[in-house]
């Protein structure tokens, strides 16, 4: 049975279901209302009828014609008597079915059927109830069929001389009820017709609003889209035109734990993620995270509902790339040193063959001094291989550009614990942006960039300084250069220092921008080693 109902349900279209439900609802409402009104109308009509025959009966029993001509114990001399003529006028004028006047023997003096005049009232027991001077109502079957009756005594000079009976047939009352109910019935049919048209309009409207899909199709699509949304490797954030979040998947929640649907995005996150209404694979640096963001408007026809952003976190990849790059540069530096050492060993071997020991001693001393100044000293003081390789690579890059790059003799960084390894990639990120900016700021041949790296054991803080002798930073720009999208190098720039600033904020660190003496800029950074829970404080995501 259940399978059959399911098959029937599938065969009926969504539009038909909507129309059927609305039509049935309207029909039931109209039927219930009609029955209630019909019952109320019948009750009111019956009450009105009783009141009408009461008023007519009271008027007839007091009429002078009746009082003058009615004899208590005599039959009328003819059917065409004064009382009959009077009651006939009353019956016609008041639109009742019968006005019967009878004497105390219950002999009729008037009746709508002429041959009944002079004869005894048919239902004598019913009429006899008013022989005691009291009126009463009756509903029974008479000569004219089912009737409503009102019996009232005729009193003359304090004595009862007869009875007046006013009759309205049930057929007449029903005709009057039908006349009253007919407009109601017509109105109900009109209402039902309007309900059908309304159902058709509602079904078309819902079909349009639901994009022509049935509830089953909507349920299936919502289920599929929910599964698809939650299985995405990218974060999904959808907002309305008031910047209120309407959709957020699990990946987006992991990126920004404090975001919840129903709450509005903060200004900084909106500016970072939805800076452009429509963009593909736009790099964004926000709160220590390097993101790739694609945005698009949410459209329903020509109506703009808001915006959608797909966010891909590439921070882990960038950190891995930075570590691998630093390691690769370190290996390349070792290979270069190995190649150079092989050349030097060949020179040493030749001097030994020539027995030029004095020259050999001087040359070995020079080789040792060059190694300590270029590699050995740095490698012994900086215990982070990726950082060492990175600095050597930057030194080579500066040399190729005709600029001077140095690492201070007092620079020193110890090896880090396993829990602190993330700082190595972040340190390369900070150093890379600061050194690149410094190299861009200095001129060829005379330009110098000096780096200092140290570690404070007590506060577990890395202290670094990058100084150059370039043109420096104008005072008016010192408060702007850390802002996203701000750059003096052209459009689609301004991410480097913003990313540096985000990393420092994530570690609750410090960044100072000062003038160098006599020219250039000194960038000083304090980068505490903090626990991941502290660095990723969810309160910062709001």
UniProtKB/TrEMBL annotation:
Transmembrane segments: 12-38, 184-206
Reaction catalyzed: ATP + protein L-histidine = ADP + protein N-phospho-L-histidine
A Pfam family reported for this protein in Swiss-Prot or TrEMBL: HATPase_c
Histidine kinase domain residues: 426-531
Cellular compartment(s): Cell membrane
Signal peptide: none
UniProt keyword Transmembrane, yes or no: yes
Matching InterPro entries: 2C_sensor_his_kinase (IPR050980), HATPase_C_sf (IPR036890), HATPase_dom (IPR003594), His_kinase_dom (IPR005467), sCache_3 (IPR033463), Sensor-like_sf (IPR029151), Sig_transdc_His_kin-like_C (IPR004358), Sig_transdc_His_kin_SpoOB (IPR016120)
Single GO MF annotation: ATP binding
EC number(s) reported in the record: 2.7.13.3
Alphabetized UniProt keyword annotations: ATP-binding, Cell membrane, Kinase, Membrane, Nucleotide-binding, Phosphoprotein, Transferase, Transmembrane, Transmembrane helix, Two-component regulatory system
Entry-linked SUPFAM superfamilies: ATPase domain of HSP90 chaperone/DNA topoisomerase II/histidine kinase, Sensory domain-like, Sporulation response regulatory protein Spo0B
Membrane topology according to the record: Multi-pass membrane protein
Protein name according to UniProt: histidine kinase
Organism in which the protein naturally occurs: Lacticaseibacillus yichunensis
